[in-house]
């Protein structure tokens, strides 16, 4: 060992081998750095543990988990710099819109079936979508958006399911509001002026038009009030998606999801600082508060669905929608 190395050598925070390097925010040796970097850049596949959970340094899965537990920062990876991050979200949103407008579900799938084998087909020419059809595509394309997030590659299939189930429906509702707002509408609607509520709602005797209107307008009225940009909306929805506090997640996944949530929050904060200078904290808080407005909208929607189920038990709600209540 050279004198220089022995002077500054410390145990690697991940594997305890002596090192004089500092990578991704922690003292760490070169091999640990390379494992972290290759998994994060998807140069190698993040496999499941192959060593029987013996925490062997030759097991990429265990070593990568140790990198996360040891404090290596995902935010130090080049592609998570703010500009690149936002460009990627915009690309993912284009893809989501393309799926939403141009595809249709082949059959009525539950969420579990959809996660395993659900692939939509190109939309038949001249087909007229009802709100049931649109809502299915809204949910499908939201799940596709979620599955295009980088962090999905490093979650186990069990944690991925928990991650998707927690946010797919509420974020589909958020995306209806985003698209309607971007189309300069003051209320949530599907393309061709198809209402977000199915026609059958008029058969429910004591439904409240006021409640339905609040559901259609609440989120969009806040988007308009804060004059939000598409970049801000995509960051907000991704922060909502990356919720580390969902019950049932492994500690490893909680740690990864929470790191990603901080990365997206810090990008949103940077946009607010750019826009508002000194008063940025108010804007940042207002934008994060959209998550509470979404929760309120979902709560209202819940009340409508209860009424619906009571008065219209035979209503042909799609499995994807039924599964969400
Ligand atoms: Zn190491
Ligand atoms: Zn292992």
UniProtKB/TrEMBL annotation:
Q: What is the superkingdom listed in this entry's lineage? A: Eukaryota
Q: Which UniProt keywords apply?
A: DNA-binding, Metal-binding, Nucleus, Receptor, Transcription, Transcription regulation, Zinc, Zinc-finger
Instruction: Report the residue ranges that make up the NR LBD domain in this protein.
Output: 101-325
Matching entries from PROSITE patterns are given as: NR_LBD, NUCLEAR_REC_DBD_2
UniProt lists the family membership as follows:
Belongs to the nuclear hormone receptor family.
Please verify whether the record's keywords include Zinc-finger.
Answer: yes
The protein's name is: Protein CBG16589
* SUPFAM superfamilies, per the entry: Glucocorticoid receptor-like (DNA-binding domain), Nuclear receptor ligand-binding domain
Q: Does the keyword DNA-binding apply?
A: yes
User: What sequence ranges are listed for the domain Nuclear receptor?
Assistant: 9-79
Tell me the Pfam families matching this sequence: Hormone_recep, zf-C4
Q: List, alphabetically, the InterPro entries matched.
A: NHR-like_dom_sf (IPR035500), Nucl_hrmn_rcpt_lig-bd (IPR000536), Znf_hrmn_rcpt (IPR001628), Znf_NHR/GATA (IPR013088)
PANTHER family, per this entry?
NR LBD DOMAIN-CONTAINING PROTEIN, NUCLEAR HORMONE RECEPTOR FAMILY-RELATED-RELATED
Extract the GO molecular function terms from the UniProt entry.
Answer: DNA-binding transcription factor activity; sequence-specific DNA binding; zinc ion binding
């Amino acid at each position: 060992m050279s004198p220089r190395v022995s002077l500054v050598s410390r145990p690697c925070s991940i594997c305890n081998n002596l090192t004089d390097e500092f990578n991704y925010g922690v003292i760490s040796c070169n091999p640990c750095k390379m494992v972290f970097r290759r998994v994060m850049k998807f140069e190698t596949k993040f496999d499941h543990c192959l060593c029987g959970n013996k925490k062997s340094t030759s097991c990429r899965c265990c070593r990568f988990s140790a990198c996360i537990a040891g404090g290596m920062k995902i935010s130090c990876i080049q592609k998570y710099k703010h500009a690149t991050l936002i460009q990627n979200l915009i690309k993912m949103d284009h893809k989501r819109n393309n799926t939403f407008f141009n595809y249709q579900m082949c059959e009525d799938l539950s969420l579990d079936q959809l996660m395993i084998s659900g692939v939509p087909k190109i939309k038949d020419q001249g087909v007229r979508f009802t709100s049931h059809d649109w809502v299915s595509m809204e949910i499908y394309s939201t799940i596709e958006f979620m599955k295009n997030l980088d962090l999905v590659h490093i979650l186990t299939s069990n944690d991925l399911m928990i991650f998707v189930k927690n946010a797919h429906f509420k974020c589909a509702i958020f995306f209806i509001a985003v698209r309607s707002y971007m189309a300069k509408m003051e209320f949530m609607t599907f393309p061709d002026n198809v209402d977000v509520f199915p026609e059958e709602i008029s058969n429910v005797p004591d439904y409240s038009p006021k409640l339905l209107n609040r559901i259609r307008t609440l989120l969009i009225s806040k988007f308009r009030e804060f004059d939000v940009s598409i970049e801000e909306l995509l960051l907000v929805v991704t922060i909502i998606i990356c919720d580390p506090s969902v019950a049932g997640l492994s500690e490893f996944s909680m740690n990864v999801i929470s790191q990603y949530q901080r990365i997206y929050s810090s990008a949103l904060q940077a946009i607010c600082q750019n826009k508002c200078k000194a008063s940025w904290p108010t804007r940042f808080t207002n934008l994060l508060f959209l998550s509470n407005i979404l929760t309120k909208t979902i709560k209202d929607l819940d009340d409508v669905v209860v009424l619906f189920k009571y008065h219209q038990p035979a209503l042909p709600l799609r499995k994807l929608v039924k599964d969400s209540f």
